[in-house]
Amino acid sequence: xxxxxxxxxxxxxxxxxxxxxxxxxxxxxxxxxxxxxxxxxxxxxxxxxxxxxxxxxxxxxxxxxxxxxxxxxxxxxxxxxxxxxxxxxxxxxxxxxxxxxxxxxxxxxxxxxxxxxxxxxxxxxxxxxxxxxxxxxxxxxxxxxxxxxxxxxxxxxxxxxxxxxxxxxxxxxxxxxxxxxxxxxxxxxxxxxxxxxxxxxxxxxxxxxxxxxxxxxxxxxxxxxxxxxxxxxxxxxxxxxxxxxxxxxxxxxxxxxxxxxxxxxxxxxxxxxxxxxxxxxxxxxxxxxxxxxxxxxxxxxxxxxxxxxxxxxxxxxxxxxxxxxxxxxxxxxxxxxxxxxxxx
Length: 344
Ligand code: SF4
Prior knowledge:
Oligomer: single chain
Radius of gyration: 21 Å
Order of helices and strands: EHEHEHEEEEHEHEHEHEEHEHEHEHEH
Bound molecules: iron/sulfur cluster
Shape: flat
């Protein structure tokens, strides 16, 4: 895998902003390249770089609020580009792109996709440049291909693990989605959110994988957690402290709905919501967390129900005597606050 950070953009920013100190954060998979970038910046410009080593899973994990605390003037957030190039007051998004081509895996997939005439494409930040070549290849093979429209946060056909809005609007126009890349995490999200057959086109293993089983497994677990939570009398409602996923309004709304149905609520705020961090709260029978929905939907190791926002909506529906319906079938599972920019 050759993922390259857009160092030219970083150099242009340093020359334009002339910071004496820069703080940087990046996902775990890009730390080696990020440390090399820091070395280059320090060597070329004499600018001090501080790498924030906390977890960084998505564009929600920006460190804008740390800039002033750490005596810096700008922050660089690596590897989660979007339709905006700046977020918060000080943070610049810096692309990291993978140069792997998809022609081979697409050629192998075409016979397997034959029964799906209308195909939607989706991918994550690192493979966005491959959407057009894949579209042409599929169209040349006779498929009707649909790309998603860019919006206020996502580029065309781009998805995050919690935001499928660009491709969701194509759900009725396509028979199946093809997700470009190796990320089952992202492809399963598209399958769950759209309800469409979704295939991962993996350019490294050169194989197409059907996400149906993984999606069904997660859906079953998500539903089971809602039913388990229904019997709880004491809830912890956890507001995430990460700056792009702080949903205080949602936490308040869910708290009020639970209380209206006689549930006791302890309000909590946490940066990292993990089984270890929740274990000490022995008096709490179920949690609702309004931070990253994937903590709940992919988090199979919690000993108690830990519901995401869509699951909490399903729980409230049941408490109110309504059907929970297809609660994961929606364009976004959280309204990322990273889109509300700038703050000042
Ligand atoms: S909140 Fe969304 S963008 Fe952030 S880590 Fe979770 S899935 Fe990714």
